[in-house]
Amino acid sequence: MKVNGKNYRTVWMKGSEVHLIEQNLLPFEFKIFRATSHSETCHAIKSMIVRGAGAIGAAAAFAMAQAAMEAEKNNYLNYLSYAKTEIENTRPTAQNLFYSVERVYKAALISKENAYEEAQKVADEDAAASRKIGEYGNEIIKDGCNILTHCNAGWLAFVDFGTALSPIYAAHTSGKKIFVYVDETRPRSQGARLTAWELKNEGVPHSIVPDNAGAFLMSQGKIDMIIVGADRIARNGDTANKIGTFEKAIIAKELGIPFYVAAPTSSIDLNCKKGSEIPIEHRSENEVLYQTGIDKKGKIHEVLVCSPGSGAINPAFDVTPAKFITGIITEKGIINATEKGIERIT
Ligand code: MRU
Known about the structure:
Layout: E1 2-3, E2 6-7, E3 11-14, E4 17-21, E5 32-35, H1 38-46, H2 53-70, H3 76-88, H4 95-108, H5 112-138, E6 146-149, H6 165-173, E7 179-183, H7 190-202, E8 206-209, H8 214-219, E9 225-228, E10 232-234, E11 239-242, H9 245-255, E12 259-262, E13 268-269, H10 286-289, E14 290-294, E15 300-304, E16 317-320, E17 327-330, E18 333-338, E19 341-344
Parallel strand pairs: 6-7, 6-9, 7-8, 9-12, 10-13, 12-17
Antiparallel strand pairs: 1-2, 3-4, 4-5, 10-11, 11-16, 14-15, 17-18, 18-19
The structure holds 5-S-methyl-1-O-phosphono-5-thio-D-ribulose.
5-S-methyl-1-O-phosphono-5-thio-D-ribulose binds at residues 51-53, 151-153, 157, 163, 190, 228-231, 241-242, 316.
C-alpha cells in the first residue's frame, strides 16, 4: 500500500537485514526499523514494532532466515534450533508465527539459501492471500454498506492489503459507497491509531468509535455487517482475535447482523481442535494504565490515565465460538468451519 505516494510492505528483507514499519510510532511518525540479526527481529516482534498475525508471521520467517545466515558451519543445526525456540517464544497467539517459522526452519535444514527463498515466499504468499481475501470479501459488501471493524487487520497487520480491511479497500476502489466504524480497541488502540490511519490514507470514509459503543450502534441500525481479523482459528472455527471481539459477535448474533472473520488459511491451526486450546497472551498492565499520544507541539508522550497505584489486567485476545461467525473469508473462498470440518459457502 502507499504511504506519501510510495509503495510499502509492512515488513521486508534486504540482504541480511529485516526492515519493518515501526508501528509503535504510528500514526504520529512514519519510520522504518532495521533489524540486523534474528535477535533484533525477535525484539521487534516482542515489542510490537511489528504486530498483527501475517506481519508477525513474515517477520518470524525472516528472523529464521537471518538465523540461518548467522549460523557457523560447525554449529549450524544447534544454532537453528536455538533460534527457532527464541522466535517461537516472542508471542504465543498468532498461528502465522508458528506456521512461518516451521516452514523456514525446514528449508534451512537444506541450506541457508533455501531458508532465505522460503522466507520471501512466505511473505509473498501472505500478500497474495490478503489480496484474494479482498476480492472474495468485496462480493458480500453491498453498495451503501456500513461496516464495523475491531482492532487492526489492515495491511499493517499483514505484509500487504490486510484481511478485514482488504474487502473494504476492494469495495471502495470498485466505487461502492461504504462507511467504516472503527473500534478504538483499547488498551493499545490499534483501531484508533492504525486502522484509522490506514483508512484515512486510502480515502475511505470512517469514524473512530469507543469500544463500548458497539451494542448501541448496532441496536440503532447503524451497522450492516462486521468484519474482523483473526490471530488463530481452531479446527472447529472458533476464532481468537483481539480482546473485545467476542462481545461484538454476541451482540451481532442477537441483533441479526452478519459477523465475518477474514483470515488466510495459514491462520487455521488444524492441530487445535477447539478455541479453548488456543494460547491467550497476557500483556503488561502498563498498556492499560498508560496511553501514548502527541502534544500540540508534535512531541510524543506517555501518560498515566488511571488512578495512581491501581493495578490492571490485560488479556490481549478472546475467542469467539464458531456459532457466532457467519463465515470466514479466506483466499480460497468464504468458508464455514464446524466440528464436522470446513465447508465452502461461496
Ligand atoms: O496484538 P496484535 O496487535 O498483534 O493483535 C493482533 C491483531 O492485530 C488483531 O487481533 C487482528 O484483529 C487480527 S491479526 C490481523
